[in-house]
Amino acid sequence: MTSCAELNRRQVMIMGTAMGAALGVSPLLGTAAAAQSSTAAARADTAESDRIAADFIGAADAVSEGLALDLPALGDNPSAVPVRVHVTEAITDDSWCEELIVLAERNPMPLACRFRFSQASGAADVAVRLRLIETMHVRALARMKDGRVFDTRGQITVAAGGCGL
Questions:
Q1: 29 — alpha (psi -120 to 50), left (phi > 0) or beta?
Q2: What's the number of domains the chain is made of?
Q3: Could you tell me if 83 and 106 lie in one domain?
Q4: What is the pLDDT of residue 2?
Q5: In terms of Cα–Cα distance, which of 128, 130, 144 is closest to 57?
Q6: Would you say 97 and 91 are in contact if contact means Cβ atoms under 8 Å apart?
Q7: pTM: predicted TM-score of the whole model, two decimal places
Q8: Cα(54)–Cα(101) distance, rounded to whole angstroms?
Q9: pLDDT per residue as tens digits for the range 51-90
Q10: 31 and 66 together in one domain
């Protein structure tokens, strides 16, 4: 049996009211309690994304220039949201993109994808389709050969979650 500490609010909702009541967790919270719970959940949901970004950035100073993120304002199909990320700075023999990551900040697993490039790649330009659980920020980070890190993010609104809920 899973302990209450191992369950998140979403799992309790899936298991149903009876199981949640047995564990001492009520999925039918009052308005004030629900607001507090959703605020805490929002912080918890982005905590993993923030940790991944901090690990990627390391000791470098992230700059918001040099990386472009193209995504629609509205994700009409949250199971396949098109996202394009590309380094806008000129690629040279001394400065090329080594690694690029895309984070869907509020997804259960925020690291959506990771790309590694070599000097022979010529350009750092990727296009993917993401599955998003709700309206959120999508964040992209790129690490250049010379140690610089580019960081950009964009907001996307989704009508319904595509991660199974």
A1: beta
A2: 2
A3: yes
A4: 44
A5: 144
A6: yes
A7: 0.70
A8: 12
A9: 999 999 999 999 999 999 999 999 888 899 999 999 999 8
A10: no
